[in-house]
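Hey, I'm writing a tutorial for new members on how sequence and structure tokens pair up, and I'd like a real worked example in the thread rather than a made-up one. If someone can provide the structure for the chain below, I'll link this post from the tutorial.
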Amino acid sequence: MESERSETVPLLPFEEQRFYPEYQQYFKHKRGNFLKTIEEFAGLWDCFQLLCVIWSREMAELATANEPKQMLPKTLFTAAHARFLTAMELGFSCCVGDASSVLRDGIEAVSHAYKLFKEPHLTTVWTQKAKTAYQEAFEENKKDNLFPDEHGLRALYQYYAAFSEIATHTNPTSAGANFTETTEVETIRWEYHYFVTDSNRLVLFLLTLLDASARMEQVFFACFESRLGLDHRLTYMHERFDEQKEQQKRDLKEKYSLGADFPT
């Protein structure tokens, strides 16, 4: 279990009582990673939190919007927000594969929500999951069906595909990313690392996670812009978020010499 990012963090008395030693070790590493990553990438952490505040404010604004055809899309956008929060926590805990899996599901929720918002007649198809009709609308030709070239959805498709590759699968791409080989005299050892602790790899992933999450929120805003656009505070918050995100990109790109894979 790789732990070079984490420092010793105390457990609560209740945790010491209820956690077996083996799980205590894992939990302390994960919590230590979380705290150290927040400290190292404090500006990025602030961006994630501001995005959460924006998204939460938008959902609160729509709490009384009960037009029947909008209820399911709103619910799916809320589910996407829940995935964003979980992915954010996992990402800062250095659980890159798990965070990718969760946000990939969030992106899918956004794509379904947008499809249903634009084509409310598909609500019955979605809720009943009628096999042929559902496949045609939501599973076949996903790029064109669910990620049209509008409101940043096509860019979200690229993230959907990328997160699918690095998510937690039992395949060479996913599992191999956490394997290392060490050779000592005549002994070869394979080690699997539970956490991604390399700062360069981690910062690139967190920037990618932030950009994808921001595009998810943009799709949500676009669907309900006629109402959300009246909130001038939201306009200011969006501008502030964009400024902070771009500043973080510039600062971190220079500090960690990030190259071609840097999200734009």
